[in-house]
Design brief:
mainly beta; two-stranded antiparallel sheet; 9% helix; Lipocalin; 1 helix; ten-stranded antiparallel β-barrel
Length: 269
């Protein structure tokens, strides 16, 4: 009887500790979520001063989902998708409101969980990501200049770290810091939309830039909520011909930066 009582006491002590540690490990399964954000895209003045050459600003909303695999060695891998949409304000050669803007992003990452005591874990990861952006500036701006459609494609390698702090009562604080190694960018500009004689659709390649992102999430059981930010800084592209009439006329995607910041709610099945 004494042995049975001792075993029961031991189990009652071990099982809560194991459950607490489970909170600190990456969890397997499906996750879905929603987000709202403030979006800024800026092309700085090439002379280094004065107002931006062009910018797009406004609010966006999005959906996200992922699936995570784990094993007994606490190695994990995740595939996730995100889509966000907003109607933004363009300011540059005039102004234009309600510009449709769409972002689609897909990522695959692999990482490993490391416990540091009973209330802290570290989860470094690396992976490969793709970001697609489309905006439709067609229409006349306030200066009567004509806009055009534009799509942006980034391929990058995320390198990041998630930490999890056990806050008690099954609450976990989970900050994430990530650096995005820019591998390749490609911009397609449908300049023929402007109806300017000779202008043709062109594609510019980009090879230099970087990104980073950060999250601060509160997790409990199936739910997570928090704030996040994504940032990109991209250098000038190559120069390509843009006119069928004047072969000396070239076009370049200018240096630019983008920031999205917002809130996010997740549910894990």
């Amino acid at each position: 009887m004494k042995k049975m009582i001792a075993a029961a006491v031991l189990c009652s002590a071990v099982f809560p500790a194991a459950q607490a540690q489970d909170q600190l490990f990456t969890r397997p399964g499906w996750m879905v979520g929603a987000q709202a954000s403030s979006y800024q895209y800026h092309e700085p003045n090439m002379n280094g001063g004065g107002p931006d050459f062009a910018k797009l600003t406004g609010n966006m909303g999005g959906l996200l989902g992922s699936y995570t695999w784990t094993n007994s060695s606490h190695v994990w891998s995740t595939i996730d998708l995100r889509e966000a949409y907003g109607r933004l304000k363009y300011e540059g050669s005039g102004t234009l409101n309600d510009v449709p803007n769409t972002i689609i992003e897909g990522r695959a990452v692999v990482g490993m969980d490391f416990l540091a005591g009973s209330s802290l874990s570290f989860s470094p990861y690396v992976g490969l990501g793709y970001r697609y952006l489309y905006d439709d500036n067609r229409g006349y701006s306030s200066s009567n200049s004509v806009g055009y459609r534009r799509s942006s494609n980034y391929v990058y390698a995320p390198v990041g770290l998630t930490m999890r702090f056990d806050m008690g009562s099954r609450w976990v604080l989970a900050p994430t810091l990530e650096y995005d190694v820019f591998l390749q960018g490609r911009q397609t500009s449908d300049l023929a939309d402007t109806d300017i004689p000779g202008l043709m659709n062109v594609t510019n390649d980009q090879s230099k830039g970087y990104g980073y992102r950060g999250y601060l999430m509160l997790e409990k059981d199936h739910w997570a909520f928090g704030v996040w930010t994504h940032y990109w800084s991209i250098k000038e592209s190559d120069i390509v011909g843009i006119s069928t009439i004047d072969p000396t006329l070239g076009g370049q995607e200018p240096k630019n930066w983008t920031r999205e910041s917002g809130i996010e709610l997740r549910y894990r099945f």
